[in-house]
């Protein structure tokens, strides 16, 4: 192939004579020579008999390549890289094209994307080739798979000269592509890109009859786009040529919406002169005035209102333009709307008024403006001011309406839940009558203040009479909420104010439980000193030590103060189990050293600490437990040992650790509960099968490469091998690895299910192909007489049926019930499969043991489409 690149014609002749393969990476030599414009080599190849219409993997012919635009360009450029300074290539694409056409090249042949050579010549601006192709019969209106014509391509590629050639030869100026766009639409893109000097192109296309009002798939016309992009010259030209100012996009927006949105005052004025509909509403219910209120400027709003826009139209959320300007604190825009008669107390969604929005925007001047114009100050207004934590606004509202009630809607909750803090505002609310003991959702005000960790709020609420021991809906006290946040200073303040340290919530926890669970040792000690019952058991018989399992210092403190390391809750969960579950190595070690039972089993799932660490992948904890001779043979309620739990959760490092320690158990002096080494071997085999089922390739590789398993070892329950399970569950990577390493593709199971049968039955085409190419027996039946094709047909997996048939599988197989694949496909209503089987001469009249044909079965199951098909076939025979 290299002499082709270097244009060594004599050498090429010699290579052809010698029978050299003229392909490279799916490219024929002719593709390369025409791409390079090498007319001499092109002539040699054509005369030697190379097909002028040969295609590459993308469907490209040499005539496509002569245009210099194809998917193999990078490959060719790579081949061109050379240190040979004597390389000389004569680029003569036009002559190459003529030679190809003279020898029968198909000028209208399309590649896989539907592109003809003409499309590519237009894209590259090779207008000499454009003329040549047309002279030789190129279809100027041929379209790609996406309905793109060559004229679309010319204007999308800024090739107006090529467009002129196409139009002179009958190209459809109004052709529509898959996106609903015309060639003019693409020409407009170039106008916007290249500047207004190209308006002559637009004038030319319109004069030739281009439809300027054709919408694309989103409903955008050329006028919409010009308005959106602020192209006043284009917009003016379109309007002078009759463009429809009322055409709506799919969102219901006319061109003026986009002019308002883009701040294009000149275009807005022009559209208003054209008497466009001012109060049209889009799919959101917005008018152009709504858009101007949100995105436009004061001038545009003034133009719209002066032209007659209704300032009180509500959108789908019942918001007027005034709502929107107030929402964003727009003082001047709001003033303009008020002057134009906007209703100041109009209620929108959730009864929001413009004043509510103005308050939320924290624009005091705007709020004062609305109030001066008669805005109603209601309870929602007060709530909004508190919600945005603005004391100045609260004072303003109260000064204008002395009847506001400060003890409704829990204003304190709004303040406590706000991101910012304002102690003066809280003081003011309480002085004005807000209840310090009202509930904030499930908590009291004081508990919520503790939860948000604000000492000032807590102190203020206590000073105004908040109950220090009042409970929320679930029994949570302020002290409990503080212990959740580990705030010692607030806890001390509460206890000094009379907080009961041993008060319980609904689950039986006291404050001490929460302090231990959240890990503040100083707080734990403080509560203990204040009389907390450290031996308290919750309603589930949990203890503070069980709940402190993630915090080693607290574990030590509690054990040192007498809590039992082996106490079990209602599920028999121990402190050690939780420490292992949450990867607290030091805590687990301390508990073991203090006598924790290492093999304690939980009640509901029969899990040990080793199970917990294994399934979570905590390798160091596993190592620790095994060092203390934890039992690896204990099975959970689901039958899993700790080792199998690690495999089931894809914890490779833990599996490796088990392998290292268990295979060297003699040297460690531990037996790990293993009494029979054959049981351990069986367990490794189970792990291997589980890894295959779940698709855990790394674990599978490790087990095989470590010599721990036999690749074709079986599950004693069904005699499935790892390959069976991989095919059953659709794990291609697993199956591929197993086969590469010698797994038996024809291994039988207890009911004669071979891997190929399982892959076919469950619809895994990629696995079916893998097995067939690996010499799996294609028609091996199971215990019931069903073959892989039989099962695929029964389940409607047409592509598998086709593949198996093409590779030698029989379509007429009879199982123990006397049924054929056609019977089962008809029974289950798989029309396409039935059609295919019949096309491959499946016997439509064969009767099963119940004396029923496939048609009879289809009638019985009321599969009407199949019935109609089989009736036509049987009647024609």
Please give the structural blueprint.
Blueprint: H1 2-5, H2 9-17, E1 23-24, E2 27-28, H3 29-35, H4 39-47, H5 62-65, H6 73-80, H7 93-102, H8 117-124, H9 127-135, H10 150-156, H11 160-168, H12 183-194, H13 199-207, H14 222-229, H15 232-240, H16 255-261, H17 265-273, H18 288-294, H19 298-307, H20 321-327, H21 331-339, H22 354-361, H23 364-372, H24 379-387, H25 391-400, H26 411-416, H27 423-431, E3 439-440, E4 443-444, H28 445-451, H29 455-463, H30 478-485, H31 488-496, H32 511-518, H33 521-529, H34 544-547, H35 552-560, H36 575-581, H37 585-593, H38 609-616, H39 619-627, H40 642-648, H41 652-663, H42 665-668, H43 677-694, H44 697-705, H45 722-729, H46 732-740, H47 755-761, H48 765-773, H49 788-794, H50 798-806, H51 821-827, H52 831-839, H53 854-860, H54 864-876
Helix pairs in contact: 2-4, 3-4, 4-7, 8-9, 8-10, 9-11, 10-11, 10-12, 12-13, 14-15, 14-16, 16-17, 16-18, 17-19, 18-19, 18-20, 19-21, 20-21, 20-22, 22-23, 22-24, 23-25, 24-25, 27-29, 28-29, 28-30, 30-31, 30-32, 32-33, 35-37, 36-37, 36-38, 38-39, 38-40, 39-41, 40-43, 43-44, 43-45, 45-46, 45-47, ...
Query: What is the beta-strand fraction?
Result: under 5%
* Main pleated-sheet profile: 2 strands, antiparallel
Portion in helices = 40-55%
- Looking at the overall shape, the CATH architecture of the domain at 107-211 is Alpha Horseshoe
Spans of at least 5 consecutive residues with low confidence: 1-8, 18-25, 69-80, 82-90
Give me the number of helical elements: 54
Strand arrangement in the largest pleated sheet: 1-2
Which homologous superfamily in CATH is the superfamily of the domain at 107-211?
Answer: Ankyrin repeat-containing domain
The chain-level structural class is mainly alpha
CATH topology of the domain at 107-211: Serine Threonine Protein Phosphatase 5, Tetratricopeptide repeat
Task: Using the CA coordinates, give the radius of gyration.
Answer: 41 Å
Count of DSSP strands: 4
**Mean of residue pLDDT?**
92
Query: What's the CATH first level of the domain at 107-211?
Result: Mainly Alpha
Question: For the terminal residues, how far apart are their CA atoms?
Answer: 57 Å
From the spread of the alpha carbons, the general shape counts as: flat
